Each structure stands twice: as structure tokens, then as C-alpha cells.
């Protein structure tokens, strides 16, 4: 039977609405029936609710699946009562400048940046930043700032340096920003090899260097040591962006905070920082922190104001995107409070403890899986790939890694605050009885 598009829409329950423009009715195709907003007509929603019951077994990706405490939802309701998330608030522009759009939450955004700039050891009177869409968005701003500053200072567009362990967004952004990319080799622990970096820098002496250092690489949880990188960058026109999307969330609450601090004494370690809000903090939608020094931002902004006309919003926005979410900064403000900070500190301690325990048990009970923890700051373990059933049950991420024996399949787990001892016990038991794994 031939089914026309109109009949198909009628069959599939996707309707059509009629609007009136003057005297001629206008059909709006593909509308959902209003009854679709009734939960009984949405079996998919029940499925999502069931899924929520299984979220503590989500081990393969760096997202904190903990349902936030009631205090968060209470704060959300208070914001809602003030109109936030009821109509179109918008944080367009620089949160540190007066805005011509009064319906914004720049005040909360400034507080969020002030709090976290302090946590990462930025100078009290020299920090700037905003709440971005994601870790990737923060990386984009960092790399764009670095490219702009270095190009202006030297007249030559920089090359961008990173390792094969860096997040894939860096490759996309390097391409987007039209920068030649230089892949630096890694050490056995997955961190950037400073000797390789020095070699590449020597080969590219006529170009400034934009280095993206990662604290907590995506698959291995490796660390690029910023101080070692800076020692090699002596005398080179350079800019260092720190991608700490995951580790940057929890390290400030641990004895290992120095890895993500902006300064070591009076020495600046990096120029800008990216941290995801939905990873360690468990913020319920994607968002990111972008923080840099205000003095650096001012230098960037001078160039930025020359390449576009910001007249329409009455100031240089400072950000690449125009409209920005006003709800997220106001809601993320919750994570700056004392009780939230105490919970974050407790979570940071327990994920590292649980990672150490899982690592030790995997090594003793199933050595053939070769479970590896790149360093003791990491909440990530990678090991030889188990059976598809286990990969599916725990949503494990997998990757082929080059080893002495050639290319082998690996999986990793990322121990986030929602992971309990009980789930780890269940996981270990499942691995022990697993007969489909590569290591058996
Ligand atoms: C997750 C991750 C990103 C991307 O962050 P999003 O917030 O998902 O955009 C970038 N870098 C690293 C190291 C990551 O772990």
C-alpha cells in the first residue's frame, strides 16, 4: 500500500495543527498531539525511570550519577520562584561587566568564578571566567585565547601541542581554530613526555607554542605534569591551557591539589583552565568552568574587540557564544556552599579510596586482566576487555591500545561518587565468573 507522508503522519499519531495567518489557514506539520505530554501516553518515560534504578552500575564514563540532595532542589525551587527557568533569562556577555540585559544571573556567575578561582589558587585580584556549556566549550575558549594572544604577541600563529591521550575535543578544536597540530609522545604512565615536547619545540622554533596539558586523560587517567612542561617551555613564546575536565573537579579537595593550582609560589603554572560541572560535581546538565587571569583576559579582549562589533550589547562579550545559559550559573552556585563543599571533599576522598581498593583486588584476584591505575591521583582503572555481557551491564567504555603484544582491547572504569562498595563487590564477582573475557 502506498502511504503518503500525510497518511503516515496520521497513522503514526504525529498530527498536524492549523494556524491562521490572515485568512488562509497554515498547516503546521509534524506536531505532537497535546496528549503526548501525558505520562500514560509516553511508555518511554517509564523506561527512563527504570533506567534510573540501575544508575549505580554505570561505571564506564566519568559522570557522577548521584541524585543531588534535597537542598539543591530547594534552591532550584527558590530560583524558579524568582522567575529563573520560567522565562528567558540570558547571561549574554561578560559576567564581570554591567549588562544591558537585566534578566541575567551574572551575580551568581561571578560568585561561582570567584569561589573556584580561589580553590584553584588564582590571585585574589587577578582572575576572570564564566560558566560555559561544557568542558569542550571551556577548552575552546582556552585555545582561542591562547591562539589570539600568541598570534598578536609574535605575529605568527601558534602550533598546538598535545598527546595522543588528550580528549578528542582538542583535535576538533585544533582543526576548528586552524592550527597545525603536533602530537607529543607519552611516557609509560600515559603522561606527556617532556623530552618529546622539547624535541618538537626545537623542530618548530619559528612558531609559538600552545600547549594543552591534561590532568586526567580520558581513557587512562594519566597526568601531564605542568611543571615539567613549563621547564621545557623556558624561553619559548607559549600559552598553556589545562584540561582538567574530570580530575579538576575533585583534586582541590584532596592532598594532591597542587596538580591543578594556577601557581606554585609566585610561578604561574598555566594560563587557563577547563573543568566540567557534570562530571565530578554531578550537576544534572552539561556545563563547564572556564577560568583564567583577568590581566590575560584584558590582553585578549583588546584583540577580541577589534575582530567584531560589540556595539549591540554595549560591551565586548568576552565569550565566543552570544547567548549563554542563565539557569546553570545560578543553580551551580549551590556547589560553592559549605555543606556542598564538605560533601565534595568526602566524595573526593571516597572515590580515591574505592579506586585503590578495586585496583588492589583486581590485581590479586584476576591478574590476567592487568588492571592499571596510571597514578595514585586517578579514579580510573583500565584493564583487558571482559566479555560483552559485562561491558553492557556496567556500560564500560572500551578502546584498542597498543601493547608489546600488538593491539589489544581494553576497557576502563571510572569510580565516581555514585559507585558503592556493593557495586564494586558485584563487579568483582562478575569478572571472576566471566568466561568470555580476553584474559581467560
Ligand atoms: C570529558 C572530558 C572532556 C570533554 O568535556 P565535556 O564536558 O564532556 O565537553 C574534555 N577533556 C577531558 C580530559 C575529559 O575527560
From TrEMBL:
Modification N6-(pyridoxal phosphate)lysine occurs at: 279
Keywords: Decarboxylase, Lyase, Pyridoxal phosphate
Top-level lineage group: Bacteria
Matching SUPFAM superfamilies: PLP-dependent transferases
GO molecular function: carboxy-lyase activity; pyridoxal phosphate binding
Cofactor(s) this protein requires: pyridoxal 5'-phosphate
Record family assignment: Belongs to the group II decarboxylase family.
Protein name, as recorded: Pyridoxal-dependent decarboxylase
Organism expressing this protein natively: Candidatus Nitrotoga fabula
